[in-house]
Predict the structure of Guanosine nucleotide diphosphate dissociation inhibitor.
Amino acid sequence: MDEEYDVIVLGTGLKECILSGLLSVDGLKVLHMDRNDYYGGESASLNLIQLWKRFRGADTPPASLGSSRDYNVDMIPKFMMANGVLVRVLIHTDVTKYLSFKAVDGGFVYNKQKVHKVPATDMEALKSPLMGIFEKRRARKFFIYVQDYNESDPKTHEGLDLTRVTTKELIAKYGLDDNTIDFIGHALALHRDDRYLNEPAIDTVKRMKLYAESLARFQGGSPYIYPLYGLGELPQAFARLSAVYGGTYMLNKPECKVEFDDGGKVIGVTSEGETAKCKKVVCDPSYLPGKVRKVGKVARAIAIMSHPIPNTIDSHSVQVILPQKQLGRKSDMYLFCCSYSHNVAPKGKFIAFVSTEAETDNPQVELKPGIDLLGPVDEIFFENYDRYEPVNEPSLDNCFISASYDATTHFESTVTDVLNMYTMITGKNLDLSVDLSAASAAEE
């Protein structure tokens, strides 16, 4: 391996594959290695036999569940905002030509021990059973303010500087009660905890606008889309993109030891006695354990069912958010369900996930409120994994390490991490001002 690469990417998780695609398009010479013999790393999709092997060891799945290859079970299940940053990245890179998407049926929120459709517009707010009649009027006024708000038009600001006013102060102006604030903050603005209330309101308003714009994009029951055959398609699509632009891929490479010079700067990666030279390394936390710290733990249950999640209008694909306050917790819980309608299970089968940030030493018990919403399950699996984030200084060692995937079931935090890494590596921002109306990013 005498060649020198601009960047060596280690691991084929979704974040690493997106970066390798973007950097290849930019003309950088990229070598992409993985110790596994499959794409996707932590974010792989498994068939039924792989799922059984991972969670049940030697057992074989029961025949009643159908054919193994009809299953594509995501290990990091997440939906995409139809108007969100990941979709813009897909369109910007033209990766959409390798993928087919379908809208997700519904977005729901857990409130007072019941599951409700998330109202996202002033009209939906008026119909929602989440609020009483007077509260509906107040909420409608707030939604209209958010819909009309335009950052560059002070006339729409009603005298408020949202970069200074906190979300709590903005909401107080409309007199909304705690239950309403709960679903706005967690199910519409997709905040993971209540810290946002004391932060500038501009972020929450932008997040609410993204939700409404995404909802309007396909006139579906939710703002989310999801690839047919599951998320495992995404890393492979970006790997194809990288290859088209000259990126080199090597799977099944054991060890992948990052080498440094005397000054602590990366100089290459060694595998099987050969060293590939490079200027920069991009990797997930497992490749450089000495440069990351543990920041939390995700608890997750994966269920195979023969019915949709009850009280979700028979939705074949759905997200339910359980805000922390409703459960007496510090962080939200997420319920994700997909089915044969997205080609991730055989006909009549549904795959549901319940995930949250673990807060105790007994994560299985913590997941109970979400699992209780599923109804009868055919099979259920539990897993926990530690979350890591980098503690190194990339400008000193040229190592760019992604953070572990969080418990959320949407992609907004994941893409932010990727774009920040892209900017650190290239010194520029990715221009994502694409015309979404002209791009057919999804199939109706």
